[in-house]
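Dear U.,

Please find below the material for section 3 of the report. The protein was modelled together with 2-oxoglutaric acid; I have listed the sequence and SMILES used, followed by the predicted complex structure.
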Amino acid sequence: MEHKIKQLNLKYDHEGYFVLRDFFSAQEIEALRAVILKFHQLWKQDNLEFYQQEAFNSSLITGSKYLGCADRVKLFNFISSAKMMALVESLMPNKPAFMNTQLFFNPVNPQQKDFWHRDCQYDYDVEDQKKVITETQVVHLRVPLFDELGIELVPGTHKRWDNDEEFAVRQEVQGRTSCENLSGGKKVKLAAGDILVFSADMIHRGLYGLDRLALDILVFDSSANYADYVDDDCLPDHLMLAQIDNPKLYINTIDLKLKTEQAIDKAGGIE
Ligand SMILES: O=C(O)CCC(=O)C(=O)O
């Protein structure tokens, strides 16, 4: 196992991703699917217009809006299970922290196209994106609940800036559009049971099609402080923490949020 983890680390380091086939048993996926489908049904009812017009994902799956405590605890235990933590800790030995979850599905409108991006482009301008990709670490763990076309990635872009083609397509400049093909793209097809681990800041796009429904779990390295991005309601409370076999991932986030709040108070507080 140690040898395998080393190889995965090397692959992640060079290419920004790795995939493990049949990482979960059919029973594990079935149990997860039952909880996620419950969330998805309620979310769709509640966001009907958005869902029908443009949505391709939802988020905050571990929050209290659509799921009760028992289902949330099931999700928390799934996310921080021993085998998930072995993967996460191999990439982030310094106190990895839970950030969020997202659920990706096909847009209702078949004309809506999948699009290339780096996650950081929605929060940072171009100069800051250049810094972010060398400094911080946010990792996506994608768990497909059904077989899907998967994700297309440009290997190595977790550590390097875009070439001209990539930049023009991703940023939609010089008449290019973000749904065009990129010559360096690599498609990673996924089946239920697989897990894909990839850097959020590498150039990637989800591939629409089949009956895709994929749970993405986002974790970050505590040395990069993303505590502000975490919604309190998506974290387990004290009662739930006591029912989670391996709660470190959440405790690290809770600690970071507390430190951030204390730092703000010390600096004079916010109004
Ligand atoms: O699957 C998708 O539609 C996009 C996936 C993605 O961008 C992500 O996981 O960050």
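For the text of the report, you could mention the following: The chain has a mean pLDDT of 95.

Regards,
Y.
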